[in-house]
């Protein structure tokens, strides 16, 4: 018997029939009939109730209760701390320091709040060893090891804790589902189960997520939709800086970034990252200082280029910390718009400190570093460089010029080279350039 108000539509030819069959009567395709509501027959008000609405103004809650993590950099990234009842995902490569950061957080928070740390990856003993390394002494932080999502959810639903950390979501599994932990269905179902428990008791929940080799969060993309905040901890695995940034944040902006360094006693915020990044700088050709933005914070980074005659037929281009496609594009542009001859040259780009540049404002610095390396010339001034470069070689506007110049001055640079400023005041010691060619002609010199 067919249900009233339901029809079956062939996804291949669109033919409509009143009952389901294995084969479409019209086009003959197999398994294409899909159930669909027949809206014309279904009286609109029969099943639905009218929603009660309220003005947006009335639904603005002034103060979201937030748990301050005690680590300023983390609070900044979150927009003021963890919101009660929020679900936060922290993603990153293995060994980057997720567990370390969370244990540090948990310790500082546990002074005033009841916090539970659930680990599915390490034994109590291992966590104890790490805690000892971190040199923290709090006796209040609660610890459990479990991989059973139902148990963790029940614990959260008990309402005893204000914040629960689950390390990691890939190791927990719901008992109702037969598949192994870490599979798509386990990850989504466990997350849903834990989220429901957290929302019910207004507990803040932090989930640790692994990322795949390509850098995507392991598991289905839906995981990112299920949670309120997605934080990513990234950077070079072996030394260098770790950057914590928000990819999605339902309670704040995604502009802020926190910069950390792994030390013998855990992750420590880096107070002056620019100075640290430039500490070992050698002034040679191929080295240009870029004023970039990490979130809304200006950061000076050294861009290094190496240009060598290629020994094979096909020139090699490689970049560490910069997008290779963008590099190829800039090299092609340089060949066309300037007198540089790069067709038979290998080009290597390195961003010092293990940072990954994603901002288009890095373009001009990359171009100048390549030109400097290829010609054996250096920047005339002790200046920082920034600006987006278009395919016709024009240098384009980038945001927050003032911040970049101010950071350069703070670190003792006596100039900045960037796009021409059309509106507003030009900062002192700033030189605007029209295009790459004039930038190279004006600011590079033989030493
Ligand atoms: P970990 O936090 O376990 O990484 P994740 O949970 O993201 O997989 O460990 C990060 C690395 O940091 C680990 O290889 C050891 C190192 N480490 C330190 O250098 N100092 C420390 O104080 C701690 C706790 C770890
Ligand atoms: Mg870990």
How would you describe this protein?
The protein has helices at about 45, 55-60, 70-80, 100-110, 125-135, 150-155, 185-200, 220-225, 275-280, 325-335, 365-375, 400-410, 435-445; strands at about 5-10, 15, 35, 65, 80-85, 85-90, 115-120, 140-145, 165, 205-210, 230-235, 240-250, 255-265, 265-270, 285-295, 295-310, 315-320, 345-350, 375-380, 385, 390, 395, 415-420, 430-435, 445. With about 450 residues, it is of the alpha/beta class. The chain has 3 domains: about 5-45; about 65-270, 3-Layer(aba) Sandwich (Rossmann fold), CATH 3.40.50; about 275-445, Ribosomal Protein S5, domain 2 (2-Layer Sandwich). The strands form 6 sheets. A 9-stranded mixed beta sheet has the order 8-7-9-10-6-11-12-13-14, sandwiched between helices. Strands 17-18-16-15-20-23-24 form a 7-stranded mixed beta sheet. α6 runs parallel beside α7 (about 185-200) and α10 (about 325-335) packs across α11 (about 365-375). The chain starts with 5 loop residues before the first strand and ends with a strand. Bound molecules: thymidine-5'-diphosphate and magnesium ion. Magnesium ion binds near residues 98, 99, 121 and 167.
């Amino acid at each position: 018997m067919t249900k009233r108000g339901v029809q079956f539509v062939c996804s291949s030819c669109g033919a409509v029939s009143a009952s389901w069959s294995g084969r479409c009567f019209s086009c003959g395709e197999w398994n294409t009939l899909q159930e669909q509501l027949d809206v014309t027959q279904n009286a609109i008000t029969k099943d639905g109730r009218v929603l009660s609405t309220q003005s947006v103004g009335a639904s603005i809650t002034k103060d979201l209760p937030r748990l301050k993590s005690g680590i300023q950099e983390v609070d900044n990234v979150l927009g003021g701390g963890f919101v009660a009842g929020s679900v936060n995902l922290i993603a990153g490569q293995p060994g980057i320091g997720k567990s370390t950061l969370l244990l540090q957080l948990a310790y500082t928070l546990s002074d005033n709040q009841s916090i539970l740390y659930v680990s599915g990856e390490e034994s109590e003993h291992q966590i104890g060893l790490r805690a000892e390394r971190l040199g923290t002494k709090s006796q209040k932080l609660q610890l459990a090891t479990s991989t059973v999502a139902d148990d963790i959810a029940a614990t959260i639903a008990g309402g005893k804790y204000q914040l629960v950390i689950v390390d990691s979501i890939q190791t927990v599994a719901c008992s109702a589902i037969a598949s192994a932990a870490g599979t798509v269905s386990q990850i989504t179902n466990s997350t849903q189960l834990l989220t429901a428990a957290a929302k019910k008791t207004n507990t803040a929940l932090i989930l640790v997520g692994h990322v795949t080799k390509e850098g995507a969060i392991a598991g289905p993309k839906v995981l990112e939709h299920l949670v309120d905040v997605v934080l990513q901890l990234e950077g070079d695995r072996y030394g260098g800086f770790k950057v914590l940034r928000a990819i999605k944040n339902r309670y704040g902006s995604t502009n802020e970034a926190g910069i950390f360094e792994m030390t013998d006693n855990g992750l420590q915020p880096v107070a002056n990252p620019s100075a640290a990044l430039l500490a070992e700088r050698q002034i040679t050709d191929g080295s240009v200082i870029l004023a970039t933005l990490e979130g809304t914070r200006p950061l000076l980074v050294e861009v290094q280029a190496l240009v060598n005659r290629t020994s094979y037929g096909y020139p090699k281009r490689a970049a560490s910390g910069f997008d290779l496609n963008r590099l190829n594009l800039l090299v092609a542009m340089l060949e066309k718009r300037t007198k540089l001859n790069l067709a038979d040259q290998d080009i290597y780009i390195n961003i010092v400190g293990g940072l990954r540049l994603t901002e288009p404002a890095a373009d001009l610095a990359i171009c100048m570093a390549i030109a400097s390396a290829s010609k054996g010339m250096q920047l005339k001034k002790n200046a920082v460089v920034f600006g987006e470069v278009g395919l016709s070689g024009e240098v384009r506007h980038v945001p927050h010029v003032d911040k970049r110049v101010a950071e350069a001055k703070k670190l003792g640079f006596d100039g900045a080279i960037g796009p021409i400023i059309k509106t507003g005041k030009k900062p002192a010691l700033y030189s605007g350039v029209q295009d790459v060619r004039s930038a190279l002609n004006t600011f590079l010199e033989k030493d």
